[in-house]
UniProtKB/TrEMBL annotation:
Annotated CDD domains: DPCK
GO BP: coenzyme A biosynthetic process
EC number: 2.7.1.24
Sequence similarity: Belongs to the CoaE family.
Protein name, per record: Dephospho-CoA kinase
Record GO terms (molecular function): ATP binding; dephospho-CoA kinase activity
Principal location listed in the UniProt entry: cytoplasm
Domain of life of the native organism: Bacteria
Sequence positions that bind ATP: G12, M13, G14, K15, S16, T17
Keywords noted in UniProt: ATP-binding, Coenzyme A biosynthesis, Cytoplasm, Kinase, Nucleotide-binding, Transferase
Protein's job: Catalyzes the phosphorylation of the 3'-hydroxyl group of dephosphocoenzyme A to form coenzyme A.
C-alpha cells in the first residue's frame, strides 16, 4: 500500500518544482492541474457533463477554459456548478492513479487540497512556503497575469500561514537547496516510520 502524501501551497510557492524533486526521489506524483487538463481535453470525462451546462464552452469536443472564465465572470454561481461536475471526476482520476501505482510514496500535487477538504484522504500533508514578497516576485515574473489578477487569486486561497499550521511538513522553497533539504527530511521521516 502506497503512502499518500498531499502536496499543496499557494500560487508561486514552488509546488511544481518540489513535486519534481519527489519524483526524482522515486515517488509517484499525481498532478491535479494535469488531471483537469485531461478531463477538459478532447473526449475527456468532463466534456459531456459541461456541455449540458455550458454548450458554448465546448469547442472541438474539448472544454474551453477561456469560455468558462467568461461564464463565471457573468454569473458567479457558474463556478459552483462547474465544481460539482469536475471535483468528483478529479477525485476518481486520483483514486485510479493511487490504485495503479507501485511506489512506496505517492505525492498528490493538489493546489486547493485544504480548500476542497481533500486532506482527509491523505496520510500526511506537506505545504510549500516562501515569503509573500518572493511569492509575488515569482508570479509576476512569469508575465502571465497582472498584480491585480494575482492578488485576486491569492485572496481566494487559504492563507499560507494557515496551511502551514495544518500541515504535517513545511517545505521552504526559498532556494533549491532549502527545498531539497526539506524534501529529503520528509522522505526520510515517512520511510523511517513506515
Amino acid at each position: 500500500m502506497t503512502f499518500r502524501l498531499g502536496l499543496t501551497g499557494s500560487i508561486g510557492m514552488g509546488k511544481s518544482t518540489t513535486a519534481s524533486m519527489f519524483a526524482d526521489a522515486g515517488c509517484a506524483v499525481w498532478d491535479a492541474d494535469a488531471a483537469v487538463h485531461r478531463l477538459y481535453g478532447e473526449g475527456g470525462a468532463a466534456v459531456e457533463p459541461l456541455r449540458a451546462l455550458f454548450p458554448e464552452a465546448i469547442i472541438d469536443n474539448a472544454v474551453s477554459r477561456a469560455t468558462l472564465k467568461t461564464a463565471i465572470a457573468a454569473d458567479p454561481s457558474a463556478l459552483k456548478r462547474i465544481e460539482e461536475v469536475v471535483h468528483p471526476l478529479v477525485r476518481a482520476d486520483r483514486a485510479a492513479f493511487a490504485e495503479q501505482t507501485r511506489a512506496d510514496i505517492t505525492v498528490f500535487d493538489i493546489p486547493l487540497l485544504f480548500e476542497t477538504g481533500s486532506e482527509g484522504e491523505m496520510d500526511a500533508v506537506a505545504v510549500v512556503k516562501v515569503s509573500r514578497e518572493t511569492q509575488a516576485e515569482r508570479v509576476l515574473a512569469r508575465g502571465t497575469m497582472s498584480e491585480a489578477e494575482f492578488e485576486a487569486i491569492r485572496a481566494k486561497q487559504m492563507p499560507s500561514d494557515e496551511k502551514c499550521a495544518r500541515a504535517d511538513f513545511v517545505i521552504d522553497t526559498t532556494s533549491l537547496e532549502t527545498a531539497r533539504r526539506d524534501v529529503a527530511h520528509v522522505l526520510k521521516t515517512i520511510r523511517r516510520e513506515a
